[in-house]
Amino acid sequence: MSQFNNKSVVITGACKGIGKGIAEHFASKGANLVIASNDKIIHETAQQINQKYSDVHVESKVVDVSSQQQVKDLYQFAFDTFSAIDISIQNAGIITIKPFDEMTHEEFNKVLHVNTIGVWLCSREAAKYMAKQGSGRIVNTSSLQGRNGFIYTPHYAASKMGVIGITQSLALELAPKNITVNSVCPGIIESDMWKYNDKVWGEMLSTPDKTYQEGELIAEWVSNIPLKRAGTPQDVANAIAFFASDETGYITGQALNVCGGMAMN
């Protein structure tokens, strides 16, 4: 339980799924956490982690990462609580699936504001504290759609490509301050988001000759993954922990696929 012993970590999008898995992993390794989400369930998640890992301190806040003031308050709260911000993990993200010509400006904009601008706002606040400390780790959650776009999700693909661009740009800008910035690109991960993806994409990709029932589309895609399984939140947490560790101080500006070999680039 010593890898991140007494490190202070901020994690957004942490109430369930990948984000909760990340939070549990860091708590299991001794980190103190401030976890955030726009869902009030985040307080229950914090309570569960505190009960499971009684040697660490976990706080929670309801935060809209597209709000400058709420993000600023989040990082001020984290610093006031732990007197340091060692690691910042930007995991908050949303997706909708719809033909591009049916998508509204508001729908497109909302995804960009949460997925991309939220990463920038959180990174900006985290870097202020890390620069004063003389070091820090910033890790962003992108997606395989940050590599290649996919049908019916141009806004999501654009937002996740933007995360990789922000990661690379900030890695250059923050290197003189001894702050590394990296990202992970998850593929198919067992989560509520992928249950939604399976349902909606399955409906939209069905044809008169092929109708996808619940679970069939994901099963078809998973069968094409070299490792023959979907990923888990733990798989993503392991990759993020790699970038967040003290041992990776010479790695920055990278985007690591976490996809079982679904993409190799």
Automatic annotation (TrEMBL):
GO terms for molecular function: 3-oxoacyl-[acyl-carrier-protein] reductase (NADPH) activity. SUPFAM superfamilies: NAD(P)-binding Rossmann-fold domains. Signal peptide: none annotated. It is an enzyme of class 1 (oxidoreductase). Its EC number is 1.1.1.100. PROSITE patterns: ADH_SHORT (PS00061). Keywords: Oxidoreductase. InterPro entries: NAD(P)-bd_dom_sf, Sc_DH/Rdtase_CS, SDR_fam. Pfam families: adh_short_C2. PANTHER family: SHORT-CHAIN DEHYDROGENASES/REDUCTASES FAMILY MEMBER, SORBITOL-6-PHOSPHATE 2-DEHYDROGENASE. Belongs to the short-chain dehydrogenases/reductases (SDR) family. This is Putative 3-oxoacyl-[acyl-carrier-protein] reductase. It comes from Vibrio nigripulchritudo.
